[in-house]
Specification:
Length: 109
């Protein structure tokens, strides 16, 4: 178990620091093996938490956010669709981005 060697959470296990602090740590040039522990913990949280986490929004805001995602997808699909000069990989990435945003909003796919 790696512990934070500095800052507000000095001495705390890396597993117990908040997501925002861990994300901040990923942007720093850290020494090994702490840098590796930060990258692994950050990746673990992304893998396990992001697919289950949803953003807490009031229903009208959530509805509007869903509409923005849907309209944005349709607008960008016109540019990235293979029939309109785009390519298959671009369309796949666009669909993955849409699905990730829907998951954050807590919408069904």
């Amino acid at each position: 178990m790696s512990r934070v060697p500095f800052g507000k959470y000095r001495g705390e296990p890396i597993e117990r620091v908040p997501d925002s602090y861990l994300e901040w740590l990923t942007g720093l040039e850290l020494r090994e093996p702490f840098a590796l522990a930060v990258r692994r913990e950050y990746a673990r949280r992304l893998d396990t938490d992001s697919s289950r986490r949803s953003i807490e929004l009031a229903p009208p805001v959530r509805e509007l956010a869903g509409e923005i995602v849907a309209r944005g997808f349709r607008a960008l699909a016109g540019e990235h669709h293979p029939d309109h000069g785009g390519d298959h990989d671009g369309m796949v990435r666009l669909a993955q981005a849409r699905d990730a945003l829907r998951a954050l909003l807590g919408e069904a796919r």
